[in-house]
Amino acid sequence: MLEIKLKSFKELTKQELYDLLQLRSEVFVVEQNCVYQDIDGKDEKALHVLGFKNNKLIAYSRIFKPGDYFEKASIGRVVVAKKERHYKYGYDIMKASIKAIKIHFQESTIKISAQCYLKQFYTNVGFKAMGAEYLEDDIPHIAMIGSF
């Protein structure tokens, strides 16, 4: 079971910020072999959902209120360390993210931009694909909406 912490950008410690950027870079840049600008100026607006196991950050997402990223509330940069994926922590971080949106933004409709290979995972969480696939940073994505 993950220990979940929810923090604004200003509440993040230097170590937490370093660890979340390292985890995102490890997966989205190195593992997926995708050169893109991860530090996009949106972290300051987000609430950060941090998933710890034995005091080590192994899962993460960031959430936005409506209008800060998409028109609807949204979840992005969902990531689980490669060595920890077989424990299905992606479901834990998504449940925590959805719950945080409901509590902190009083929103029940959430939009995500999902990597296509993860469409079934997000469907299992409660999202439905909307529209056609598109390329984002040369990786196929699809818009998905969920009502919770």
What is the topological layout?
Layout (H helix, E strand, L loop, with lengths): L2 E6 L5 H18 L15 E7 L2 E9 L8 E8 L8 H17 L3 E7 L3 H7 L1 E10 L2 E9 L1
Parallel strand pairs: 4-5
Antiparallel strand pairs: 1-2, 2-3, 3-4, 5-7, 6-7
Describe the protein.
- It contains 3 helices and 7 strands.
- It is 28% helix and 38% strand.
- With 148 residues, it is an alpha+beta fold.
- It is globular and about 40 Å long.
- The longest helix is centred in the first third of the chain and has 18 residues, at 14-31.
- It has a domain at 3-105: Gcn5-related N-acetyltransferase (GNAT) (Aminopeptidase).
- 29% of the residues are buried.
- It has a 7-stranded mixed beta sheet, sandwiched between helices.
Q: How many individual β-strands? A: 7
CATH class of the domain at 3-105: Alpha Beta
* Estimated structural class: alpha+beta
| SSE succession | EHEEEHEHEE
How would you describe the shape? globular
Tell me the β content. Answer: 35-45%
Helix content: 25-40%
Oligomeric state of this protein: single chain
Mean pLDDT: 97
Q: Please mark out the parts with pLDDT under 50 across 5 or more consecutive residues, or reply none.
A: none
Corresponding CATH superfamily of the domain at 3-105? Gcn5-related N-acetyltransferase (GNAT)
Q: In the CATH scheme, what's the topology name of the domain at 3-105? A: Aminopeptidase
Separate helix tally = 3
The biggest beta sheet is recorded as: 7 strands, mixed
Q: Could you say what the CATH architecture of the domain at 3-105 is?
A: 3-Layer(aba) Sandwich
Radius of gyration: 14 Å
| C-alpha end-to-end distance | 22 Å
Strand order of the largest sheet: 1-2-3-4-5-7-6
